[in-house]
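Hi Y.,

Following your request, here is the sequence exactly as I used it, all 458 residues.
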Amino acid sequence: MNLSSFARAILCLFISVGQAVAQPPDNFRDASSEQLFFNARIITGDGAVIEQGSVLVRGDTILAVGSTSSIDTSQHAIRHDLSGKTIIPALVNTHAHLGWEAYGDWGSQFFTAENLADHLFRHAFYGVGTIISTGSDKEELAALVKLEQLKGNIGGARYHLSPGMGTPGGGPNPRFTDDPDYWGVHPVADPEQAVRTVKELAANGYGIAKIWVDSRDERRGAQVKLAPEIYTAVLETASSYDMRIIAHATTLADHKSLVNLGNRRFIHMPYDREVDDEYLEMIRENNVYIVPTLGMITKREPYYIPAFQDPFFYDQVPASVLESLNDNYNPPPADQSAAAEQRSAMLARNLAKLKDHIILGTDAGAVGDFFGYADHVELELFVRMGMSPAEAIVASTSRSAEAFGLNSVGSLKAGKAADFMILDANPLDDIRNTRQIIDVYLRGKRVDREALKQQWSQ
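Below is the corresponding structure, written out as tokens. Let me know if you'd prefer a different format.
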């Protein structure tokens, strides 16, 4: 990818100056140091639980996971006694929109290297170790930030990019497309252009891409809804390049069509009607992954709690942000209509039926939800709508990583990345216990959450 001298200059300035603020101090001694986290309950992310277990880490990698009595380590290892605590993998968020949110404002003018890095740390603060930003990034600048993170110059959650393809005039929700300076998606008006675009993205090193299949496009200037012959060309070409496609689709008919033509990943579950046996069989046979984005569709539910009323959110933003959110808040009705109750029940039934295919994604940065915080809200909604806490954790860690071939993250096993949360309570008892964060470790390094909180709350 050819990068403009202007973009390079901006990023260099950010790294030399801005990173001093955004990057918490590194407390890890050196790459060869070992750390032993012992006597903890270990929820590995794949459904297994080890009581009185240990995690042995060297540098940024897990060396061993098992019962405390079974793990040998050197006498020089740094030892952390976690009696009564729980370790879970860092969360893997497969759908958010980084760069636009300014915590008190929003727009394309905030898509800067410094703001991207801030969003990576906001995810890390809440124990999100990996984030896929889908279809709204300014790709040249985003690629630079990702490269500098790979070099070790930027910390926070691991940053993955997913460029977007859609019909001309379509793509993200109007909040993006109404911005006069929005750079747009990659237009795919016909199968030939779809093939060329996928090849170009693959040549630029992208392994994940998003497509929009949504009738709302026709109502806001797109020429046509993305047609099956176009997304067939996308899916077939992507398969040749080992590129994983995730499709934005919200209707049962579009889900069925996309699965039939080879799509395996979805942003949004069917919202328009109850899923049927045919669809359930299709997703089982094809090992389909689905991001339900429950936080987006439950804001009018009576149980909804806005972020500015939640201590888990409001103690790490300035009072001015809370005041702005409060001033602009339109609360849900105290009583739902019969139609709204029926729809809520239908969506809960859909989630329960699809639970073995669910992965984590929040849409944060696009729909008024906030990075990292929204992930824990989504976990709670998984459980509220029919999943067990254990199922919700698997969905948000190992299965999310598996869906995109992110083989180094998502579970606590030897050889995996040392990305995990230490909790003060057991989330298998109550999923809200994922909020009881004592520490977050990413790449084997402790995230300085207190320093970040002080920085953000001023």
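Residues 90-292+346-408 form a domain with the TIM Barrel fold (CATH 3.20.20.140).

Thanks again,
Q.
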